[in-house]
Write a structure and sequence with these properties.
The chain is built from 2 helices and no strands. The radius of gyration is 17 Å and the shape is extended. It starts with 12 loop residues before the first helix and ends with a helix.
């Protein structure tokens, strides 16, 4: 038997604006992807 789907939260204020900006963004350039990957690896290595 399937479980019910949880209700989706509604975003307000700064969170809503940030989500809107992210949802309208275009594809990242290869340079930007490389920088983001490097930042993520640094963050993950701190743990």
């Amino acid at each position: 038997m399937a479980r019910p789907i949880a209700e989706t939260p509604v975003l307000y204020g700064a969170d809503a604006q940030r989500f809107e900006t992210i949802s309208q963004s275009t594809n990242l350039t290869p340079r930007r992807k490389k920088n983001n990957s490097a930042r993520l690896m640094r963050i993950l290595s701190v743990k």
